[in-house]
Write a structure and sequence with these properties.
Layout: E1 10-13, E2 20-23, E3 30-32, E4 38-43, E5 46-52, E6 68-73, E7 76-90, E8 93-102, E9 107-113, E10 116-122, E11 140-143, E12 146-165, E13 175-181, E14 186-191, E15 198-205, E16 227-229, E17 236-238, E18 246-248, E19 255-257, E20 267-269, E21 284-287, E22 290-303, E23 310-320, E24 324-331, E25 334-340, E26 346-347, E27 353-356, E28 359-378, E29 387-395, E30 398-404, E31 409-417, H1 419-425, H2 432-435, H3 451-472
Antiparallel strand pairs: 1-2, 3-4, 3-12, 4-5, 6-7, 7-8, 7-12, 8-9, 9-10, 10-15, 11-12, 12-13, 13-14, 14-15, 16-17, 18-19, 18-28, 19-20, 21-22, 22-23, 22-28, 23-24, 24-25, 25-31, 26-27, 27-28, 28-29, 29-30, 30-31
């Protein structure tokens, strides 16, 4: 456990039940009694009870209080201990932030970020921040001379807490929150629940890199009785992941909204014309060196602006206890493995290119997307008919996708993978033909074309010119001038190809 010998832990009896309440960090002002759930505030050596904290909802995270690990900050490795947990809710979903107590006596946060984890520390923004409403989604702004893109602007509220905590916003009271992301992978969060607003900056981390000790063995739900009857057909429905906000009934395929919890009012949307996933839910497989389990599936349709030709693709939600969530995308262009990015790529002024982590990506497709069918469980509130605006980019290093909803911009990055790799990973050799796609070859290198390629292109151009010349002078009374082999333009729908877009 990380402790600083210069710090003295403070312990006092809970004003509610008398049980000991301990403060390890001098910066902590609040704590939640582990026995009676009283919220207490520390003023000097006096504890005052403010009320009772709402009960925690269990989540999929393997983290728990008093886990210890190590993080490299400013080139130096520091031990830390998780001493508190905060749970927030917004229109974008529900997430957890852990309070980390560092060896130097300061605190930081280890939070969830679109199914992954990010380690953040408080910073001084260097200027007075404008009201949250002044941050326009997708616009750029500068903090301490660095450019950021506005990825989210909305409201959030604290729903529960545990352990030792910093100054808290009022429980259940909405406050404004803005998220900024940079092209080099940083995320900056502005919390307007404090005065002045609290600003934290961080980067994505892998739990195994933090050398954590004390993790839970399993991420599945602990409460065995978390089940209910489907509001549509009455069949029993079992919840597997405790973070689930939407899931489908296994009997009638109705999509059930769990945003209010199992004890709240359940709403079901009947789904007809089911689309069966090629990879069954619950399947386990290893991709890119990580063991994944398929927990969700959704089918989506896209259409380019001004066009009436639709195209479809499927997305499999994958879960790993330490890596969080990822998406396996099945489109006409092939299979790809993508994850939401922590930072936000920098778009060019004309929107034709995007630069992320030093790599430039070229725009391939732009389209409107809609979710048409859902199966399984999801860590965000998914619903049939959800619509987003999407743009897909590509480079020699992989794929990059942008997805924009009403109040959030989400970027995803990943790589194309071969059909055989997918079949082998999930032991679906009997479905190799069904899973087969026209796997794309490697992208053309940026260094240019070789002499052989140039000669080949020149020959093809000459042949095409000869054919076009013949067709332009063709007399159908003498020659066969059929146009049955005419070229089909990809049109506004880009031939129906999509890498699946971004993900919340």
């Amino acid at each position: 456990m990380a402790t600083d010998p210069t710090q003295r832990a403070y312990r006092a009896p809970c004003p509610g039940c008398g049980a000991p309440v301990e403060f390890k960090s001098a910066q902590s002002t609040h704590a939640v009694c582990g026995y009676c759930q009283s919220t207490v505030v520390r003023s000097g050596d006096v504890l005052t009870r403010l009320g009772k904290m709402a009960e925690l909802f269990d989540d999929h995270s393997p983290l728990q209080l008093f886990d210890s690990g190590r993080i490299t900050l400013d080139g130096k490795e520091q031990p830390f201990t998780l001493i508190g947990r905060l749970q927030f809710k917004s229109d974008a979903g529900v997430w957890t932030e852990w309070v980390a107590f560092l060896e130097d006596g300061s605190t930081a946060s280890l939070g969830e970020d679109n199914g992954a984890y990010v380690f953040t520390r408080k910073i001084d923004p260097g200027r007075e921040l404008p009201e949250a409403s002044r941050f326009r989604l997708g616009a750029t702004t500068a903090i301490n001379g660095k450019s950021y893109s506005v990825a989210y602007s909305g409201s959030a509220q604290l729903v529960s807490a545990q352990g030792e905590l910093p100054q808290l916003p009022p429980l259940g009271h909405p406050f404004d929150m803005v998220e900024l992301r940079s092209a080099d992978g940083e995320v900056l969060s502005i919390d307007y629940g404090h005065t002045p607003p609290s600003v934290e900056r961080g980067r994505s981390v892998l739990l195994e890199d933090l050398k954590l000790q004390g993790l839970k063995d399993e991420s599945a739900k602990e409460e065995k009785g978390r089940q209910f009857n489907c509001p549509h057909c009455g069949a029993p429905v079992q919840v597997q992941l405790s973070t689930t906000k939407s899931l489908t009934c296994g009997s009638c395929n109705s999509l059930i909204d769990l945003n209010s919890g199992v004890g709240g009012e359940l709403r079901a949307a009947v789904q007809d014309e089911p689309v069966q996933p090629l990879i069954p839910l619950g399947s386990k497989g290893q991709l890119q060196g990580v063991h994944w389990q398929v927990v969700g599936f959704q089918h989506r349709m896209g259409v380019a602006p001004g066009d009436d030709e639709h195209f479809g693709w499927s997305e499999y939600l994958l879960y790993n206890q330490k890596r969080g969530f990822a998406f396996l995308v099945d489109s006409e262009e092939g299979w790809s493995m993508v994850r939401p990015t922590t930072g936000a790529p920098q778009l060019s002024s004309n929107g034709r290119t995007a630069t992320y982590m030093g790599t430039k990506y070229e725009l391939k497709y732009s389209y409107e997307a809609e979710t048409t069918y859902v199966l399984g469980e999801f860590y965000w509130q998914v619903s049939r008919g959800q619509k987003t605006s999407n743009r897909d980019f590509a480079s020699s290093k992989g794929v990059l996708s942008l997805e924009q909803s009403r109040n959030e911009v989400t970027w995803s990055a990943g790589d194309k993978i071969a059909s055989d790799t997918v079949a082998k990973a999930f032991k679906l050799d009997d479905k190799k033909d069904v899973l087969q796609r026209d796997d794309p070859g490697p992208f053309v290198a940026k260094s240019g074309m070789g002499c052989g390629t140039i000669i080949l292109v020149a020959v093809v151009i000459i042949i095409l010119l000869i054919i076009l010349s013949r067709c332009s002078s063709c007399d159908p009374r003498v020659e066969n001038c059929s146009s049955s082999s005419s070229y089909r333009s990809s049109g506004g729908s880009y031939g129906g190809y999509s890498s699946g877009g971004g993900h919340k």
